[in-house]
């Protein structure tokens, strides 16, 4: 193997359309996806997680085999936390991404919102509810789903 000398500024990462990559730095750190376009100073990646295009510098990417599955927390919000959107709508967080929260509302509607749209997190430690026979249930109770 011969040694080739060249100025460091000529060294570039090389990606091609169809490569599966992971973002290592920046706004989308931790996300994975497929390269859909390579420009001179930017790579466009179709995110596995959000199914949106991410515009990323090549220096912030690496080839990856894994697929990101989402975050466990985002700011003050954790996966499965109970949150309030407005005075009439509450929901349970079922998926967290870098710029969006997916939740299921009390009406069973799946909704994707930005973290800023969440009015507040509900404290669910002392909350009780009723089962189908109108018996009280609370956190850590064992229930049977039918």
Order of helices and strands: EEEEEEEEEEEEEE
Radius of gyration: 22 Å
Helix content: under 10%
Tell me how many strands there are. Answer: 14
Number of helices: 0
* Major β-sheet profile: 5 strands, antiparallel
Lateral strand order in the biggest sheet:
4-3-2-1-5
Mean pLDDT: 83
Beta percentage is 35-45%
Instruction: State the low-pLDDT regions, or none.
Output: none
- Which geometry do the CA atoms define? elongated
How many angstroms separate the termini?
A: 67 Å
- Quickly give the structural class: mainly beta
Which oligomeric form is depicted?
single chain
Write up what this structure looks like.
0% of the residues lie in helices and 39% in strands. The chain contains no helices and 14 strands. It has strands spanning 20-23, 32-38, 43-47, 53-56, 61-63, 73-74, 77-78, 82-86, 89-96, 101-105, 110-113, 120-121, 128-130, 136-138. The strands form four sheets. The chain has a five-stranded antiparallel sheet with strand order 4-3-2-1-5, with no helix packed on it.
């Amino acid at each position: 193997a011969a040694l080739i000398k060249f100025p460091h500024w000529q060294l570039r990462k090389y990606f091609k359309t169809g490569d599966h990559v992971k973002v290592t730095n920046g706004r989308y750190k931790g996300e994975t996806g497929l390269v859909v376009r390579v420009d001179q100073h930017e790579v466009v990646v179709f995110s596995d997680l959000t199914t949106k295009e991410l515009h990323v510098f090549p220096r912030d990417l690496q080839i990856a085999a894994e697929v990101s599955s989402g975050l466990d927390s985002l700011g003050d919000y954790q996966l499965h936390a109970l949150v309030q959107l407005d005075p009439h709508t509450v929901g349970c967080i079922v998926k967290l991404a870098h710029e969006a929260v997916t939740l299921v509302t009390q009406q069973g509607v799946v909704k994707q919102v930005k973290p800023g749209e969440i009015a507040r997190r509900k404290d669910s430690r002392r909350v009780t509810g009723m089962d189908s026979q109108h018996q009280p249930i609370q956190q850590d109770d064992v229930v049977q789903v039918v």
